[in-house]
């Protein structure tokens, strides 16, 4: 995904910067514990499309 696009993306709920998980193709908000899907390179920034992160995932390194 485009780095500039990524830098512009924030969580629609809390407006924090998101972590991009390249392997999972997800954008992670560690504050809300949500993972937003990236479909065909297009981030889907909808709370109802987001996946809940597990406790382990929330604890992973935040970069
Ligand atoms: Zn958030």
Q: For the CA atoms, what is the radius of gyration? A: 11 Å
* Whole-number mean pLDDT: 90
Named once each, the bound ligands are: zinc ion
Given as residue ranges, the uncertain stretches (5+ residues, pLDDT < 50) are none
CATH topological fold name: N-terminal domain of TfIIb
- Portion in strands: 25-35%
Structural class: alpha+beta
- Quaternary structure state of the chains depicted: single chain
Helix-strand pattern = HEEEEEH
**End-to-end span in angstroms?**
17 Å
Total strands: the figure is 5
Largest sheet: 5 strands, antiparallel
Gross morphology = globular
Counted up, domains total: 1
**Which range best describes the helical content: under 10%, 10-25%, 25-40%, 40-55%, 55-70% or over 70%?**
10-25%
CATH architecture: Single Sheet
In the CATH hierarchy, what is the class?
Answer: Mainly Beta
Question: What can you see in these coordinates?
Answer:
- By secondary structure, this protein is α+β, with helices and mostly antiparallel strands.
- It has a single domain (3-59), classed as N-terminal domain of TfIIb (Single Sheet), CATH 2.20.25.
- It is 17% helix and 27% strand.
- The chain is built from two helices and five strands, in the order H-E-E-E-E-E-H.
- It has helices at residues 3-8, 55-59, and strands at 19-21, 26-29, 34-39, 42-43, 51-52.
- Strands 1, 2, 3, 4 and 5 form a five-stranded antiparallel β-sheet that branches.
- A hairpin with a 4-residue loop joins strand 1 and strand 2 (26-29).
- The longest helix has 6 residues, at 3-8.
- It is globular.
- The two termini are 17 Å apart.
- It binds zinc ion.
- Residues 11, 13-14, 16, 29, 31-32 line the site of zinc ion.
